[in-house]
Specification:
The protein is built from eight helices and 13 strands. By secondary structure, it is of the alpha/beta class. The strands form two sheets. Strands 6, 7, 8, 9, 10, 11 and 13 form a seven-stranded mixed beta sheet that branches.
């Protein structure tokens, strides 16, 4: 079984892929939800899949955690919870880039909604996004709102082997992201704060919740860990896990070049 945990935002999401290949989930969003819900969610899924938490732990083969950039509190709570949960457990442990996980969201077969915007700020359904993302030359631009006119940003190409990194993650001005979007006519924008790049700003709570459910969902981590390329992943030791942060010292207002290599 594979356990995936997403806690890098206000979302607390846990997914478990069982030995039969089925995926079961728990998801919630709100302030301080990680400290209240994360451990109970994990226990519920282990018990649901195996009859008891103990049996579930003994059946775990992999654990993958979204490791930032993101919320300091959420990342720390998840790391602490896993250190206790996996103590003396022989389980393969992976730390994942949150931005790479967001890029994987375009592969999820979920109900279409207008939560993904392309470079011309027109809404796309997920089926359209999936088709464009898999075409030659397409670039997935992953963003997380860093506030104050900035975003955490990283572009990826989607290839047969999985994701390919086109630039290192940085905290950049939103104008930089806009320039990058317009550098490729097959750009796909995915992530929290995508409304910063649309022509028609929205304050819809419903859209905001749909955005979070898609982009900050532990199922994206299960997709990422199954891709052959293993981009955005690294094997880690749970007792030495250090969340990945992008701080003010990494602010860059310049254009990020997009690699033309194939």
């Amino acid at each position: 079984m594979i356990l995936a945990i997403e806690s890098s935002s206000s979302v607390c999401s846990v997914s478990l892929q069982t030995n039969s290949g089925n995926i079961i989930d728990r998801w919630t969003e709100g302030r301080a939800e990680h400290s209240k819900k994360l451990v109970p969610f994990i226990g519920e899924l282990l018990e649901e899949s195996s009859g008891s938490v103990e049996n579930g732990l003994s059946s775990l083969q992999k654990v993958i955690i979204s490791n930032g950039p993101g919320s300091y509190t959420g990342l720390r709570i998840a790391g602490s919870a896993l250190r206790g949960l996996l103590f003396n457990q022989k389980v393969e442990f992976w730390a994942a880039s949150t931005l790479a996980s967001i890029a994987c969201s375009v592969l999820q077969e979920q109900k279409p909604f207008s939560g993904i915007a392309d470079a011309s700020s027109q809404a796309k359904t997920l089926s359209q996004t999936k088709a464009s993302a898999q075409s030659a030359g397409a670039v997935i631009h992953s963003v997380i709102d860093a506030r104050g006119g900035y975003s955490y940003y990283q572009p990826f190409a989607l290839e047969e082997s999985g994701l390919r990194i086109l630039a290192e993650p940085k905290r950049v001005a939103n104008s930089t992201v806009i320039n990058a979007l317009h550098s490729n006519d097959q750009s796909v924008l995915a992530g929290a704060g995508w409304v910063n790049f649309t022509k028609a700003p929205t304050s819809s709570i419903q859209l905001e919740m749909e955005e979070k459910k898609q982009f900050f969902h532990a199922r994206n981590l299960l997709t990422l860990v199954c891709l052959p390329s293993k981009i955005g992943l690294e094997i880690a030791m749970v007792d030495r896990l250090e969340p990945y942060y992008l701080g003010n010292n990494q602010v860059n207002n310049t254009y990020i070049p997009i690699s033309k290599e194939t």
